[in-house]
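QA checklist item 7 of 12: single-chain prediction sanity check.
[x] sequence parsed
[x] length recorded as 591
[x] structure emitted
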Amino acid sequence: MNLPEIIISNTQKAIQALFNIEVPESTITLQDTRKEFEGEVTIVTFPFVKFSKKSPEETGAMIGEYLVNNTDLVVAFSTVKGFLNLSIASSYWIDALQQIFANAQFGKLPSKNARVMVEYSSPNTNKPLHLGHVRNNLLGYSVAEILKYAGYNVIKANLVNDRGIHICKSMLAWEKFGNGETPASSGMKGDHLVGKYYVEFDKAYKKEIEGLIAQGLTEDQAKKEAPMIKEAQEMLLKWEQKDEHVLSLWKMMNDWVYEGFAVTYKSMGVDFDQYYYESNTYNLGKDIIDEGLSKDVFFKKEDGSVWIDLTADGLDQKLVLRGDGTSVYITQDLGTAQMKYEQYKMDNSIYVVGNEQEYHFKVLFLILEKLGMSWAKGLFHLSYGMVDLPSGKMKSREGTVVDADDLISEMIQSAKEQSEALGKVADFEDEEKERLYRSIGMGALKYYLLKVDPKKRLLFDPNESIDLQGHTGPFIQYSYARIQSILRKASNNAPSNANISDINANEKDCIMQLLKYPTIIEDSAKTYSPALLANYLYDLAKTFNKFYHDDQILKQEDANRLNFRLMICKNTADVLSSGLALLGIEVPERM
């Protein structure tokens, strides 16, 4: 049993002995003791006064005295209003550290025999990945890794939006203005090249709109009548009719994009087990619509379009199939959801998609439930907020996005400049320097985006993210490197089980933080929130650094005490390394 379980069990015994009543575990609430009071664990005593018939303070004092007299675990207590603060015996913390030290898999949870799909990235093939995609990819990857560590069987999936009017715009502009330009001839990454022509389409389209407005058309009329948009729509129709020339152009430009994406994914350190492509899934779902019509889940309007009425569920009427029999997004999403379930039979499926799609996913999940899909209860939209920059919002059509590749390069360059300014890499080989700069730069980027709750919108400040002294990834990386330096210097005193009988406050605080790791993993997995893990790692690094500064680990003359402190160092380094890996962050052995 862990400490909370032991305390709850003994508190139940105390209440039974003192007040002759059995209480369920759920009535006993534990908290970390506040820093201004003695103790490590606090029991909330307010719920017990109804049967103790005494004040919260008297009730707490009686339970505290029982625990001190009847267990080896509690050595002292104090009461503050309705809170019973317990001081735990040093022997418990010493034994706990030794158990962590002996467990090479500390923090990893047993298999849950459950399968989870995490779908993330889902890029469009008309442009390179940008800052918003970076948050999506890092969030999806980290959630998947945390779930794996928490004992789930995880499938990482990527549904690529590789068809539609957006890619036709890039294709058309390349045909008109490209003069046969290729990634090889231009020296540009393929996704950047295709994105360049998406911007070129928009420029030409806007000029045509302005010209038509000058001729007397309204803006709405001009947008519909502009030759560029009509040609793009015609190209999409030809694609759907499998026109040989259009398909060949589409395949060539998409291949350029996939090669570019692969480079960016590698730079970000994310991967996928399964790719799906909208070009293969856009016609899925029509059979589901037919089935839903036969069950009266859907209804037809006079123009032949198919709808579902969700007004009774607080939503509205939703189109699920056009009158001409063509799909809308919800049609193919219904079909794709069913296809994925039939392929993997997963217990849960997580869609990592921005919060602008919250309504869409409410509708999608509700329709699947109304169709009787038992697995629909396991669907979850991991909705995340937009990433803003100090300079403002991004617009991909205008070419003002913060490109993911550029951002990554800038972060690595910033890490290089800061490291060289500190003068701590003079003795590093060139290859080791480059690895370090990438590790710090990407650690800064990933941590900054992941430490914020996914649901919250965030402002990304590149300069703040790389500060070695702030609430940052590099601060945690530096803490790990500092520990590795200590362990190298103490190589003649390798950490091992140490024979000591007491510990100081800093040692205890480090052990208390370490013991939280498995619970943090469990909670992060349950809530799909890497932010819980990220903030825990920062707290652990802070706690260790206080211990490092106050206790001067290597100056300890007593061999047993030194070994005990080296055990704290080794366990802290292991948890920092393990936890950062779940965030996709590497740890440098020295900085």
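[x] summary fact logged: Confidence is low (pLDDT under 50) at residues 393-399.
[ ] second reviewer sign-off
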